[in-house]
Structure to design on (403 residues):
């Protein structure tokens, strides 16, 4: 047997022992709050389908209509022959969603948020002679990986600043002589649910001539009157902002976009290797995303955001714990930090037996000793479902043996 196969066996055993081994569960039904896995019914509180659009009849119809009109595949990367007119139409619409926040906004459509993030960071780190990147400590893995790749391709300085520690960030920024500085942050922190202090970050970006990249994967569709995300919500505007929105969460499809000043987008088209060397996503998808944005910004979107907000309020009122720490979050991401991997797994298993699906999130996704249940709410959850979960968790808090 090759060395690698034996070694993998040994390393998987270690992961098992440390309760860190990940596994895949296959869902038999469409994305929704009530799902089935292997014949078992579960109430899901873990998807990012915040508005309940992932199985919406209008989007199902749009994706089928898109496939009929444009075919199923793009056929090539964007810069060869895979960029269709419907991609242009979508990008123009995506840019309009951020036009109030980014002067001369232009958008570029990507097949995933992961690719959008590594593309933007690697391309932006190539501007000028020397780049410093300032990264928020709890940033998503795709931002961290983008920085790692940037480091592999050119000489850059990386500074990680602690969660919400702006004084620490400013201290380093104020002594930085690198001409190109990039501050990178999640908009809504994906494992904690709190918002980045984007106003203050922009103030620092202005003061120290930096760019500010905001990954709003969990804000687009959810935050702001029209669902345009954190920039609309916080009414900020600057040509220093590079905005990343994803389309696989609240928008109910998949894909992502980078929106920034048109010169930044022109640079990405030249330098973002994951954009240049990857097949463009299907034009049918672009067509369906256009429909999703119309739903998000219209009356239905406003209604769904109001329902989601009501569900968040209901959950916060109904869930108080002594043994566990429900993090302070006003968004749909409502984590319950329990500490050890063992407790997180034990709680997730107990919930599973009672018909609830909330997976345990363990290191390295979250810091060591901060294992948690990452609970997410959707506009599609009913009052009864949320109240039921609150009751079940309250009972488990007293009945679950201490690990
Ligand atoms: C904050 C954040 N950024 C980026 C991504 C990646 O987006 P995508 O799933 O579209 O690759 C995710 C989650 O998947 C995320 O939570």
């Amino acid at each position: 047997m090759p060395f690698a196969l034996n070694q993998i066996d040994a390393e998987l055993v270690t992961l098992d022992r440390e309760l860190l081994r990940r596994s895949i569960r296959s869902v038999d039904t469409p994305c929704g709050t009530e799902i089935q896995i292997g014949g078992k019914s579960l109430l899901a509180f873990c998807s990012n389908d915040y508005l309940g659009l992932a199985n919406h009849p209008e989007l199902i119809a749009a994706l089928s209509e898109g496939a009929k009109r444009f075919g199923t595949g793009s056929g090539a990367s964007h810069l060869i022959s895979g960029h269709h007119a419907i991609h242009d139409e979508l990008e123009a619409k995506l840019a309009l969603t951020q036009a109030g926040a980014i002067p001369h906004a232009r958008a570029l459509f990507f097949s995933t948020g992961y690719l959008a993030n590594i593309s933007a960071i690697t391309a932006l780190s190539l501007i000028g002679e020397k780049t410093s990147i300032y990264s928020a400590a709890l940033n998503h893995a795709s931002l961290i990986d983008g920085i790692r790749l940037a480091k592999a391709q050119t000489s850059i300085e990386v500074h990680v600043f602690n969660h919400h520690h702006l004084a620490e960030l400013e201290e380093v920024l104020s002594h930085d002589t690198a001409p190109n500085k990039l501050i990178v942050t999640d908009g809504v922190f994906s494992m904690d649910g709190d918002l980045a202090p984007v106003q203050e970050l922009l103030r620092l970006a202005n003061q120290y001539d930096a760019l500010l990249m905001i990954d709003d994967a969990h804000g687009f569709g959810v935050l702001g009157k029209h669902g345009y995300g954190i920039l609309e919500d916080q009414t900020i505007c600057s040509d220093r902002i590079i905005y990343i929105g994803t389309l696989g969460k609240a928008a109910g499809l998949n894909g992502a976009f980078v929106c920034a000043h048109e010169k930044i987008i022109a640079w990405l088209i030249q330098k973002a290797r994951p954009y240049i060397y990857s097949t463009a996503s299907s034009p049918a998808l672009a067509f369906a995303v256009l429909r999703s944005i119309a739903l998000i910004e219209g009356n239905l979107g406003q209604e769904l955001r109001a329902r989601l907000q009501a569900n968040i309020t209901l959950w916060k009122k109904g869930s108080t714990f002594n043994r566990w720490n429900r993090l302070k979050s006003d968004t749909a991401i409502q984590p319950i930090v329990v500490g050890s991997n063992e407790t997180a797994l034990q709680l997730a298993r107990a919930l599973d037996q009672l018909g609830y699906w909330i997976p345990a999130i363990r290191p390295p996704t979250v810091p060591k000793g901060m294992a948690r249940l990452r609970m997410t709410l959707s506009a599609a959850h009913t009052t009864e479902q949320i109240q039921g979960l609150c009751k079940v968790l309250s009972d488990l808090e007293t009945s679950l043996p201490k690990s």
